[in-house]
Amino acid sequence: MSPSCDRPTLTQVQIIRSLADALSWLERELSWGVPAQELRALTGRIGELYAAMITRGQMALAPNQRGYDVVSAEGEHISVKTITTSAHVNFNAATFEHIDRVMILRINVDPGGDEGVSIEEVEDKPAGEFLKLCKKHTDGLRFTPSKRKRTPEEGAQPQNLRITARASYNGYELVRYENGAIGVLKDGNPLAINVKGFLRPIAAELGVASEHESTVLLTTRQLGISVIRALNLLEERASTKSTGRARKATVSKPHGRTGSR
To answer: For residues 39 and 57, what is the distance between their CA atoms, to the nearest angstrom?
Structure first.
């Protein structure tokens, strides 16, 4: 029996859990100062799990089996390339004919930033279409991915997004938009500032932790909503105490005495 036959078939739930575990491990490694470029085996595994998840497929029985890494639910042989900072992606021309589909994924690393670790789909095309994007190279075929998509400027108000949570602090208003982004407003106007730098001292004042129990720093979005909740809780408690004191004063107020004539 081939050793690859021992590789288990994973359910969708198991694939999703494995992906979450791998991403958590990547976050820990990054928080310890390990460069993303030195974690290629882990990032490659994350890419394959992500591809298997969105195609409802399975990992190939052997790593890089005849040029492909994942087999989709529809039976497509998918080559998955996962990059972090690479400027080029190489393919083996001798095995490209066995590929039906190509997925290029980029793991964007921003530990403790606005989004933390995220997965970006750079390309997802049938092999024939993707081949037109490649150039012949001494190593076979070479593809040059587009630059990373940038999120809106930090602190800028996202276009046409509702505010889903808000709290006030010393004349400023902290808001969370429906896409999860955190903003700081002054007199109703968004401030283009370092949002996380603004949040840190407020979090310290409120006793809000800025990292997970696993010592992984919270992203701006995670820290922001935690601070908003803490501020609203303080305001709610202050309002409850104020109402309680008002009621007590009303009950204890002496009534005028009535006498008989």
So the answer is: 24
Cβ atoms within 10 Å, residue 9? 8
Radius of gyration of the chain, Cα coordinates, nearest whole angstrom: 27
Cα separation of 90 and 139, whole Å? 7
Residue among 136, 134, 135 nearest 123 (CA): 134
CB 70 within 8 A of CB 51: yes
pLDDT at 43: 94
Is the Cβ–Cβ distance between 79 and 69 less than 8 Å? yes
Rounded Cα–Cα distance for residues 110 and 222 (Å): 13
Note whether 218 and 112 are within 8 A (CB): yes
Each residue's pLDDT tens digit, 59-101: 887 665 678 899 999 999 999 999 998 788 999 888 899 999 9
Tokens matching residue 198: 């603004």
Going by C-alpha positions, the residue among 119, 56, 117, 111 that lies closest to residue 82 is 119
- Rounded Cα distance, 139 and 156, in Å: 44
Q: Considering the entire predicted model, what is its pTM?
A: 0.70
> Using CA atoms, how far apart are residues 36 and 187, in angstroms rounded to an integer?
41
d(CA 118, CA 174): 24
Q: Which two tokens stand for residue 4?
A: 């690859």
